[in-house]
C-alpha cells in the first residue's frame, strides 16, 4: 500500500465517525452528513495522490464535507427556514455522566443504537454511520441483499427524522440501559465475526471482530468510567486472542479444551487481563460488576491457564454462579453446566443440562453439550442422537465439521 | 412535535377494567406538564361504520375496517419535544392503562 493509500485508510478509521458526527450536529440531518462524508473521502482519494496528504487530514475532510453538504442543500434549494424545521433535536448540553467525553461521536452512537429502532437496523446504522463501512460491505457481512440493506438504512434515517429521535447523550438516569443497548449491538457484530452463521460464509470473520473491537475501544475512550464498556472490551480481546487457534487447518472448530494455547495472542491476553484487573479493583471497592465484566473474568481464568488441566474450574463455577444471579438465562445455565462437568463429573452436569430441555431444544449448543457429556459417560447411542440433532441445528461450517467428526468417532 | 398515542387492547386477553382513576390522574399530570393536547376512549369496534364513497355512491359497511384480535381502544395526542420524552411518557401510560401503546409522530 502506498503512503497516500495508507493515509486515506488511517483517516477513514480515525475520522469517519468524527466527520459524520460533526456534520450531523451542524446540519441536523444524518442523510446529508453521511453523503457529504462519503463525498469528502472520495475527493481525498482523487486529490491526495496528486496534491499530497494535507497536514491535518481530519480538518481537511471536515471542511470538504461541510462544503459538500452546503452544496447539496443549495442544489436541492432547501430554504433555510424549511431546513431548520426538519433538523434533529440537539440541545448542546454536555453529557451528564462523570468522565464522559463531550464528543459528537457519542451522540451519533446513541442515535444509531436507539431502542425505537429494530436490532438489525441498529447494527446496520452503527456500522455505516459510526464504523464507516459501506453498504456492500455490511450486506456481505450479514448475507443480506444490498438493496434490502440500503432500504433498511434509508427507512431508519426517515424514522429518526419523522419521529424526532434526538441527537443526544441520554440523561444519567437512562444512561445504563442505553449503554447496554449500544454494547448489545457491538457484541452482536463481534459474535457474528467470531461464530459466523450460514453455510456460505467463512467460519471466522476477522473483519467483523476487528470492527467490533475498534468501535468498543472508541466507546471506552468516550465513556472511560463505565465498567460494562471495559468489561465488554476485555471479553472481546480475550476471545479474539484465541481466534487463530479456534479453527484447524482443515476448517474444523477446535474447542477451548483442545486448543494449542501457544497459538493464542499474548498481547491481546495481556491487555484483556489488565482490563479485567481494573474491574476487579472496582468490584473490590464495592461496584457490582455487570454481565460483560463477569464474562470477561471467566475468560481471564481460561486464558490464565497454560494448560487446560491447570484451569481453575472452581473459580469459573463461582463466576457462573454470580452470572446466573444477574442473568437467569438458560444459555448461561448451559455454560455453567460445562464447568460443573469438570468439577463434579459429567453425570451431575448432564442432569443440569437435561433440565434445560424445554427452553433450549432448538439450540445447537444444548445438543452438542449433551452429546459430549453422554460420550464421556459411555452412552454412545444417545450421544450419537444428540450429535445428529446438534449437526442439524448448527449454522457454522467449522462447528458442523467438528461435530460430524466427533459423532463419527463414537464407538 | 405532536405524537398520536394509541392504546391497543387485545380481545382475547383484555387489560384490566379498573384503570379509569389512574388514567384520570395521569391525564391531569399530562395537562400540568404541558404534554396534553387531546385524549379520548373509544367505544367497542362493533360500533364502527366504514364509508367508501370513492365510487358512484357511498357504501356503508358495519364494523371496523380491519377485523383483528388487537384493536384501538383509545387515543391521546401529545406535544413533546422529541421521541425520548414521548417514549418515557408512553412507558408510564402502558402501566397506567394496563395495555400496549403505539407512539406515532404526526407529519
Automatic annotation (TrEMBL), chain A:
GO biological-process terms attached to the record: DNA-templated transcription initiation
A Pfam family annotated for this UniProt entry: DUF6596
Key words, A-Z: Sigma factor, Transcription, Transcription regulation
Ranges of residues in domain DUF6596: 178-278
Residues annotated as domain RNA polymerase sigma factor 70 region 4 type: 109-160
Domain RNA polymerase sigma-70 region as annotated: residue spans: 18-78
SUPFAM superfamilies: Sigma2 domain of RNA polymerase sigma factors, Sigma3 and sigma4 domains of RNA polymerase sigma factors, TPR-like
Molecular function per GO: DNA binding; sigma factor activity
Family: Belongs to the sigma-70 factor family. ECF subfamily.
Name of the molecule in the record: RNA polymerase subunit sigma-24
Taxonomic classification: Bacteria, Bacillati, Actinomycetota, Actinomycetes, Streptosporangiales
Designated gene of the protein: rpoE_2
UniProtKB/TrEMBL annotation, chain B:
Start and end residues of each YCII-related domain: 1-98
InterPro entries noted in UniProt: Dimeric_a/b-barrel, YCII
Organism domain of life: Bacteria
A Pfam family per the record: YCII
Family, as annotated: Belongs to the YciI family.
Protein name as annotated: YCII-related domain-containing protein
Annotated source species: Planotetraspora mira
Amino acid at each position: 500500500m502506498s503512503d497516500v493509500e495508507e493515509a486515506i485508510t488511517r483517516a477513514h478509521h480515525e475520522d469517519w465517525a468524527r466527520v459524520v458526527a460533526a456534520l450531523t450536529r451542524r446540519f441536523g440531518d444524518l442523510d446529508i452528513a453521511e453523503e457529504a462524508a462519503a463525498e469528502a473521502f472520495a475527493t481525498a482519494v482523487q486529490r491526495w495522490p496528486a496534491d499530497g496528504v494535507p497536514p491535518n487530514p481530519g480538518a481537511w475532510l471536515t471542511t470538504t464535507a461541510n462544503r459538500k453538504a452546503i452544496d447539496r442543500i443549495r442544489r436541492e434549494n432547501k430554504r433555510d427556514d424549511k431546513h431548520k424545521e426538519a433538523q434533529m433535536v440537539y440541545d448542546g448540553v454536555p453529557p451528564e455522566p462523570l468522565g464522559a467525553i463531550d464528543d459528537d461521536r457519542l451522540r451519533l452512537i446513541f442515535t444509531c443504537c436507539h431502542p425505537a429502532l429494530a436490532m438489525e437496523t441498529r447494527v446496520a446504522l452503527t456500522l455505516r454511520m459510526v464504523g464507516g463501512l459501506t453498504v456492500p460491505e455490511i450486506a456481505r457481512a450479514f448475507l443480506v441483499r444490498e438493496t434490502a440493506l440500503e432500504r433498511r438504512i434509508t427507512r431508519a434515517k426517515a424514522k429518526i427524522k419523522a419521529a424526532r429521535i434526538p441527537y443526544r447523550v441520554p440523561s444519567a438516569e437512562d444512561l445504563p440501559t442505553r449503554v447496554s443497548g449500544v454494547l448489545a449491538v457491538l457484541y452482536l457484530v463481534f459474535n457474528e465475526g467470531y461464530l459466523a452463521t450460514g453455510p456460505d460464509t467463512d467460519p471466522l470473520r476477522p473483519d467483523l471482530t476487528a470492527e467490533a473491537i475498534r468501535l468498543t475501544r472508541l466507546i471506552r475512550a468516550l465513556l472511560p468510567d463505565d465498567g460494562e464498556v471495559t468489561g465488554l472490551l476485555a471479553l472481546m480481546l480475550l476471545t479474539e486472542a484465541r481466534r487463530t487457534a479456534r479453527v484447524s487447518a482443515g476448517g474444523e472448530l477446535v474447542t477451548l479444551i483442545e486448543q494449542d494455547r501457544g497459538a493464542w495472542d499474548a498481547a491481546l491476553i495481556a491487555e484483556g487481563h489488565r482490563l479485567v484487573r481494573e474491574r476487579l479493583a472496582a468490584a473490590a471497592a464495592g461496584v457490582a460488576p455487570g454481565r460483560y465484566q463477569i464474562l470477561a473474568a471467566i475468560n481471564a481464568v481460561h486464558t490464565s491457564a497454560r494448560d487446560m488441566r491447570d484451569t481453575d474450574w472452581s473459580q469459573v463455577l463461582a463466576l457462573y454462579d454470580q452470572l446466573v444471579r444477574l442473568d437467569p438465562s438458560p444459555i448461561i445455565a448451559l455454560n455453567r453446566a460445562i464447568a460443573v462437568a469438570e468439577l463434579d463429573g459429567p453425570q451431575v452436569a448432564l442432569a443440569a443440562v437435561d433440565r434445560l430441555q424445554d427452553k433450549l431444544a432448538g439450540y445447537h449448543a444444548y445438543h452438542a453439550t449433551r452429546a459430549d457429556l453422554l460420550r464421556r459417560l459411555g452412552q454412545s447411542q444417545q450421544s450419537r442422537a444428540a450429535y445428529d440433532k446438534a449437526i442439524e441445528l448448527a449454522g457454522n461450517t467449522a462447528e458442523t465439521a467438528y461435530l460430524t467428526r466427533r459423532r463419527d468417532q463414537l464407538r | 412535535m405532536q405524537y398520536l398515542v394509541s392504546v391497543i387492547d387485545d380481545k382475547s386477553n383484555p387489560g384490566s377494567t379498573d384503570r379509569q382513576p389512574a388514567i384520570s390522574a395521569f391525564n391531569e399530570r399530562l395537562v400540568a406538564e404541558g404534554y396534553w393536547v387531546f385524549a379520548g376512549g373509544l367505544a367497542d369496534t362493533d360500533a364502527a361504520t366504514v364509508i367508501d364513497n370513492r365510487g358512484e355512491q357511498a357504501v356503508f359497511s358495519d364494523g371496523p375496517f380491519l377485523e383483528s384480535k388487537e384493536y384501538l381502544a383509545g387515543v391521546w395526542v401529545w406535544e413533546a419535544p422529541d421521541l425520548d420524552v414521548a417514549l418515557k411518557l408512553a412507558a408510564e401510560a402502558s402501566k397506567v392503562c394496563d395495555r400496549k401503546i403505539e407512539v406515532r409522530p404526526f407529519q
